Amino acid sequence: MVPTMVLVADDSRDAQRREALCGLAEAVASRGEVPVAPAFGSPADVTAAIRSVGGPKVVVPAFVAGGDVASAQLLSRIGLGDLENSCHTEPLGAVPSIVADLATRLTDAGWKPSDGVVLAADGTTATGERQAVTDVARMLSRRLGSPVQVGYLRTWAPSVFDAVDRLRRHGHDKVAVAAWRLVDGPDFELLRGLDVTAITAPLWPSDLVVDTLLAQHRAVKGRLA
Is the domain of 195 the same as that of 150? Predict the structure, then answer.
């Protein structure tokens, strides 16, 4: 029996965000590799949705590490260790193919080698997620052949705004922002308000996201054998 992939995220903040997450779940399900059950909403909603799934299940975060404070907090509250016949994966982090796609998105958005780059994350209280953001910035820097500053919208310093200002003070008149975010939503409007030359779109939609979620599922489902 193929374990069900249960996609988990907070979708309470915006209808556009909810639509994007549902679209992601449908895209994964359309591959026909695994049954997929979306579990989006509040901690109570998500817990109920997970428990309603019969048989073995793999809980998969539908967000990137350090890129969604609300979803990370939700995941920490639902007691994954108490779920029977289940295992879980970590949020998407420094996956080479996704970082390469982010670099391509920067170039497509108008970034030039002389421009400054800020990797814009959300932040969480988890040190592991902060390390994942640092790893993404390091990989993106190698991919671009250019330094990458990290900036956060919440929880951590420096803020995205401070990171942009720092690059300007160091002679970068043009600054591009690489958005470390899986789906669109109201928080993304904060980035659109920045005085920068380019901002990448959220990572989804992209077939690479679907590929990576399925790869995560394949990597851990053996724990349930």
Answer: yes
- The residues, ordered by sequence, that sit 6+ positions from 108 with a Cβ below 8 Å of its Cβ are none
Q: How far apart are the first and last CA of the chain?
A: 10
Residues 6+ apart with CB under 8 A from 74: 8, 9, 10, 42, 43, 46
Q: Total structural domains in the chain? A: 2
Does one domain contain both 180 and 211? no
Domain extent, residue 161, equals 96-199
pTM of the model: 0.94
Q: Does 126 share its domain with 188?
A: yes
| Amino acid at the residue 150 | V
| One domain for residues 140 and 190 | yes
pLDDT, tens digit only, all 225 positions of the chain? 899 999 999 987 788 889 999 999 999 999 999 999 999 999 899 999 999 999 999 999 999 999 999 999 999 988 877 788 899 999 999 999 999 999 999 999 999 999 999 999 998 778 899 999 999 999 999 999 999 999 999 878 899 999 999 999 999 999 999 999 999 877 777 888 888 999 999 999 999 999 999 999 999 988 885
